[in-house]
Amino acid sequence: SASVKTTAKVMSTLNAGISSSLGSELSTEFKKTVENSKEEKMSFKMVPTDGARFAWQWTYLYYEGGVTTPVKTNELAITAGKWEKPKCLPGYAKDPDNGYQVCISEKYEIKP
Questions:
Q1: Nearest C-alpha neighbor of 22 from the set 99, 76, 92
Q2: Which of 8, 53, 100, 106 is 20 to 30 A (C-alpha) from 112?
Q3: Cα(31)–Cα(37) distance, rounded to whole angstroms?
Q4: How far is CA 68 from CA 1, 24, 56, 90, 108, in A?
């Protein structure tokens, strides 16, 4: 079976200051994603605005037995452009359809 430590490792790549409780929370969320995963096509309509012109799809990297498998989620982050990366972890933006730049709490911010 796969190690839960992996998810914390992936998330710590995004945010070096991630707390162990947040790492555990995200690991649990990731496990649910993997356990319930099946490949599906996803489509959505987006009306571009100044703060929302580019869609990012969250993908976890799943490590098991020396093999890395990307696991795409249904979670999207919309930002002003390819040059503007999301500043919040998946699902934790205050206004996810308008920039993904303000998080519901500082602990969910992705630190550069």
A1: 92
A2: 53
A3: 10
A4: 14, 20, 20, 20, 25
* pLDDT means over runs of 10, the chain (112 residues): 34 47 70 67 75 84 84 85 91 85 92 81
Contact residues for 3 (Cβ-Cβ < 8 A; gap 6+): 63, 64
Global pTM value? 0.62
Measuring CA to CA, which residue among 6, 17, 1 is closest to residue 108? 17
Q: Assess contact for 74 and 53: CB atoms under 8 A.
A: no
Cα dist from 31 to 10, 67, 74, 98, 101, whole Å = 13, 17, 14, 28, 26
Instruction: Give the number of C-alpha atoms closer than 13 A to the C-alpha of residue 3, restricted to the C-beta side.
Output: 11
Question: Residue type for 44, please?
Answer: F
